[in-house]
Amino acid sequence: MVVSDSDASGGEQDQDGAGQKPESPSRPVTAAARRERRATARPAGKSAARADDKTRPAGKSGEKTAPDAKGAPTPKRDQKPKKASVLARLVRFIREVWAELRKVIWPNRKQMVTYTVVVLAFVVFMVGLVSVLDLAFKWGIGKIFG
Predict the structure, then answer these.
(1) Whole-angstrom Cα distance, residue 114 to residue 137?
(2) Using an 8 Å Cβ cutoff, are 15 and 21 in contact?
(3) Closest to 61 (Cα-Cα) out of 50, 53, 73
(4) pLDDT tens, position by position, 35-46
């Protein structure tokens, strides 16, 4: 049995003591009414500031925006950027590698032993599996062509 919001309230019980129905429902029925109710319950802090931002988009009013931090004009597309020297690029590469290595979470001794045992066990299993398949194919080829 499906019960709507109006049926679930009991019909006659929606009326107040004077026999009149209340003016506004305690819970909005439609999604639009719920959105409207949430909008009125919101404090006028950030939403008012966002409304001002929407009325005047940045960069469209013809005003000059703040210049770039370097103060240099944007390079043209056909200009190639200057390359640093080989030594400078090598030093930069080593610094970036060092920075990435500092971000790595290195395993402790217990984890390293566990990982090593798991890898060795997997390798032994795979060697055994390939050996068995090799012997089976060798035997099968020998029976067919031998």
Answers:
(1) 35
(2) yes
(3) 53
(4) 787 776 666 555
Residues 6+ apart with CB under 8 A from 29: 5, 6
Residues ≥6 apart with Cβ < 8 Å to 14: 21, 22
DSSP conformational letter for 13: G
Q: What pTM value is reported for the model?
A: 0.36
Helix (H) or strand (E) holding 39: helix 31-41
Residue length of the chain: 146
Is 22:14 a contact under the CB 8 Å cutoff? yes
Environment class of residue 28 by beta-carbon count within 10 Å: exposed (0-12), middle (13-18) or buried (19+)?
middle
At residue 36's C-alpha, the angle toward residues 8 and 15, to 5°, is: 35
Q: What is the dihedral of CA 11, 17, 21, 27, to 10 degrees?
A: -80
pLDDT at 34: 79
